[in-house]
Give the backbone structure.
Amino acid sequence: MTPIHHYHNDDKVMVAVDCIIFGFDSEGLKILLIKRGFEPEKGKWSLMGGFLKKEENLDQAADRVLKKLTGISNIYMEQLRSYSKVDRDPVERTISVSYFALINKDDHDIDLTKEYDAQWFNLKELPQTIFDHPEMIERALNVLRRKAVTYPLGFELLPEKFTMRQLQDLYECILGQELDKRNFINKVNSLDILIKLNEKDKSTSKKGAFLYKFDVEKYQAKSHEGFSLKIA
Amino acid sequence: MTPIHHYHNDDKVMVAVDCIIFGFDSEGLKILLIKRGFEPEKGKWSLMGGFLKKEENLDQAADRVLKKLTGISNIYMEQLRSYSKVDRDPVERTISVSYFALINKDDHDIDLTKEYDAQWFNLKELPQTIFDHPEMIERALNVLRRKAVTYPLGFELLPEKFTMRQLQDLYECILGQELDKRNFINKVNSLDILIKLNEKDKSTSKKGAFLYKFDVEKYQAKSHEGFSLKIA
DNA sequence: CCAAAAGTGTTTATGATACACCCATGA
DNA sequence: TCATGGGTGTATCATAAACACTTTTGG
């Protein structure tokens, strides 16, 4: 039999990464988009994307692109999937690998200076996005929701001290549904990864709500056993 | 701000697909490998891989490559993940997207004529494979196991009529662990997707075991509700 | 004194697990 | 008659889900 291919250049293509950044803050779950700075579709809303360079791997490309376009760095993004429709980019054959992360919006808003045309959008009020970005976003959101129930996301997303209500709000935002307060608290307590503090946050009620912090040791000890925070 | 990139060719790279084919038959779970037909690493065992062409998408490339190297066609493969270490292919910068499928080995053995240097290997006796193929295989196996408990794989993998024991063997192979016979049967029956036939298979015992077939309508009705076959 | 959010337990239902004996038959 | 695999049911436990009233306090 003949070899399928030698290595030649005829079939080289551009490889891109697109970063899907979900952000959480007191207002809810948002997604970050930029005004695309080059043709085609210049000026339209887009995920943060750019091309893979020869001397870097995809993870590195995603980090670099995100930082260049938004200033955000040092976050953990996860590779999701490749998109390869032949005509997905009208200029030239390009495949794109999507990455996603969920971050605390407030921790990174400093980065989003005027220098960048990046903007947070409420998930329910997304503008039109270019190419196959709507599909990328939808798939990422599914993965995010699946992860949220399988694995205790969220602790990195809250301030160091937080109330049960804030934690519950986080889960409700991500899952897009309301949860029973008592069941939620029971579940979280059964995981035994929070420390109840002797302080109260009075900003949202007259009675005040106890603050909790996250027991890093217990959390880490348990997280590789893989515990599930299935909440409904 | 300046655009991050114009479209130029400096950073074009080769894009490959690698197919991970798990096969099930009466002997158990196997994986298909080929003797690589071109340099580098010619003659070593490898996943079925080849390069993406400009006029096809990744799914199509995976189908084409698999057919060319093994004769196997018309199977559903699922995209898994991109591998992009800079030096993963020593000849030239190449990223690879892995695909996987689980098939009934007997249904496709016809295809594997002498023409192909493809061979099934028992999962526990894998030979050394090239590049990052060991990692691809390991990840694919994890996905396969996760899918097996979440979603009733396996019905496509058995002959039209099969015994409970065969179905249980299938799951035990995939999960790599023994299951309790009674619990397994109870669970499967509770799904209500099998039809018990009035025939027995006497090939493995004197008493004979009832044959079942798969109730296609019920199966399909339920499968988009998404039912789980969690078995331990 | 009252509105608004915080806090708190129990019951029920469902699914998971563990477990052991009789049956039918061909050799 | 006996060895071999086939077939069957129950009790227990853990987890999920549903559910409502009292507490606190600033205004």
Notes: The beta strands of chain A are 14-25, 28-35, 45-46, 48-51, 78-83, 94-104, 118-122, 162-163, 194-201, 209-214. Residues 180, 182-183, 187, 190, 202, 205-208, 230-232 of chain A lie near DNA strand D (CB under 10 Å from a C1'). Confidence is low (pLDDT under 50) at residues 1-6 of chain A. Chain A is about 30% helix and 30% strand.
